[in-house]
Design a protein that fits this description.
With 321 residues, this protein is mainly α. The chain has a single domain (35-317), classed as MetI-like (MetI-like fold), CATH 1.10.3720.10. Helix content is 72%, strand content 2%. The chain has a two-stranded antiparallel ribbon with strand order 1-2. It has a two-stranded antiparallel ribbon with strand order 3-4. It is a multi-pass membrane protein. One of its GO terms (molecular function) is phosphate transmembrane transporter activity. Belongs to the binding-protein-dependent transport system permease family. CysTW subfamily. It is found in: Cell inner membrane; Cell membrane.
């Protein structure tokens, strides 16, 4: 039988020391957690290794011509993915800009006492449900709703402001802007949810102290709450960008699948994920090698973005200590 020990300085409090069972549970949990970490790392390395192994013949045969080429013609044996790389990054960052503004604003609106708690919970649930909608449904919605809705505005912008490179072409159908708008809606739940968690994690005493210093509601939010939650908010943006870089079906339906590089928001474009999805089913052996090369590039871009974002978050956390 374990004998209770008394905490020094407080003779009225007594507690039991950890039992052998507690030690066993603790050590088992630690072991399982370490095994889980090792398995995740092993899975990532195995995935990169396997894709790299399949891409190696294409890399040896075509070298950097695939990365720098802009023509994709199977009949001529020309495989260039530079327009797809451009379209992937361009559409992802435009979507991140749109979703970042609305996602963080939504998180502030739902966590900073602008709504009653029950009503805020309803809106939070609605936003989270956006993540459950299939990608193909977003694509169909973009084709039949988004493109017709924005076409008059894009026509006016092209006519009146066509000298600006971003509005230099007309929107005849699928293009970069409708793809980016739909992509922004798809990553909005991730950014909003993580930003809400970051703002909620800020101690209430911090906000109360700001009020005690005489700040207004908005000053407390913008000068105290948001900076305090900046690391978590940045993490939400990194997660959203990672999701945007790998999105496939909706972009394949909306981006236009044209291998050209243009600053125009209305021009058709292509992305690496769409290129892979549309060409793999009928690809021959030579094309598969290049497609695996493109898959490796997409994977490396995503990993680099996430690693870079994690490093910035770690640096910010150290700076706050």
């Amino acid at each position: 039988m374990n004998t209770p020990f008394v905490v020094p300085g407080n003779p009225d409090s007594a507690c039991q020391p950890p039992s052998a069972k507690d030690f066993l549970v603790d050590r088992t949990f630690r072991a399982l957690a370490r095994i889980g970490v090792v398995l995740v790392l092993a899975l990532v390395f195995a995935l990169v290794f396997e894709v790299g192994r399949k891409a190696l013949p294409g890399m040896e045969k075509h070298g950097f011509d695939v990365l720098l080429g802009s023509v994709w013609d199977v009949n001529q044996g020309k495989y260039g993915i530079l327009p797809a790389i451009w379209g992937t990054l361009y559409s992802a960052f435009i979507a991140l800009l749109i979703a970042g503004v609305f996602g963080v604003s939504m998180a502030i609106f739902l966590t900073q006492d602008f709504l009653p708690a029950k009503l805020a919970a309803v809106f939070r649930t609605i936003v989270e449900l956006l993540a459950a909608i299939p990608s193909v449904v977003y694509g169909l919605w973009g084709i039949y709703v988004v493109i017709p809705a924005i076409r008059p505005l894009t026509a006016w912008l092209n006519t009146e402001l066509g000298w600006i490179p971003f509005f230099g072409t007309s929107l005849s159908g699928p293009g970069l802007l409708p793809a980016a708008l739909v992509l922004a809606i798809m990553i909005l739940p991730t950014i909003a949810a993580v930003s809400q968690d970051a703002l909620t994690a800020v101690p209430m005493k911090t906000k109360q102290a700001a009020y005690g210093m005489g700040t207004t509601h908005w000053e407390a939010i913008l000068k105290v709450m948001v900076p305090s939650a900046a690391t978590g908010i940045f993490g939400s943006l990194v997660l959203g960008l990672g999701r945007a870089l790998g999105e496939t079906m909706a972009l394949a339906m909306l981006v236009g699948n044209a291998n050209n590089i243009s600053l125009s928001l209305f021009a058709p474009a292509n992305t690496l994920a769409a290129l892979l999805a549309l060409n793999f089913p009928e690809a021959g052996p030579n094309e598969i090698e290049v497609l695996m090369y493109a898959a490796l590039v997409l994977m490396l871009i995503t990993l680099i973005v996430n690693i870079f974002g994690s490093m910035i978050m770690m640096y910010a956390q150290r700076g706050n200590k």
